[in-house]
Specification:
alpha/beta; eight-stranded mixed sheet; 38% helix
Length: 321
Amino acid sequence: MRRRLRALAAAFFALPLAFAAAPSAHAADPTTMTSGFYVDPESSAKRWVAANPGDGRAAAINASIANTPMARWFGSWSGTIGTATGAYAGAADRADKLPLLVAYNIYNRDYCGGHSAGGAASPSAYADWIAQFAGGIANRPAVVILEPDSLGDYGCMTQAQIDEREGMLSGALAQFSRQAPNTWVYMDAGNPRWADAATMARRLHEAGLRQAHGFSLNISNYIPTAENTAYGNAVNRELSSRYGYTKPFVVDTSRNGNGSNGQWCNPAGRRIGTPTQLGGGAEMLLWIKVPGESDGNCGVGGGSSAGQFLPEVAYKMIYGY
């Protein structure tokens, strides 16, 4: 049945544009076109387990982290981006599973934080990159998280830089609407302790939220799901009262099992949270950050770089110590 739905959807989007046009560019539901979420066979946790089968921590990391569906992050390290996203979405499609992808290459990325600084060389380079990202996915079902931290990271930016960033995000959403009709795109809305709900609703709207399926919360953070859900609902109340619409939201639960101790960069004593699933107070609870991957050269990850897999941190996160 799911394969039939996929074939029907593909046939629909092959019709002439005048007939295919609909009020929502993302009317297709990728969760109904697939049989569950895709487990990344090349995640950092999977690769570490495969390379260290005799390590005493490997069995626990394999059972509790490596085989949980979670997002793959794409950036400058991904090579030719359309080829990379096409290969990943294609592998998931062949398995009849729904892939989670993160686009993380915006110009002036992490401009104020710095631990993950980088990104495309210019706004025009980013426009080309994200167009290829969307084109690689094409008609396959997918979920994309668009540029984590991009709307919370305003503290040291000028208004001209903010306007530039919002333009890049709006342009990215237009590319997904045009090229990837079976993809749900979530703009990132930071977390409840970064910006108040009214401020975040305004930023989301000004960056083009109407074109997106929804927004994401708590990426790479540790804040409890209930607090994120309350914040997401508050953002929606602001969107409704100010702009006349609301959007679904998702929460990153990969590392919030023990909640937050107020630190965001490799804090000790954290724990994995609820595995990827539909519902849970949000549209979906997702593992977006891989548990055990470093936030940067800080906390219990001192001496590491952002994204580096730290097996001892991953192992301790399974048990919450």
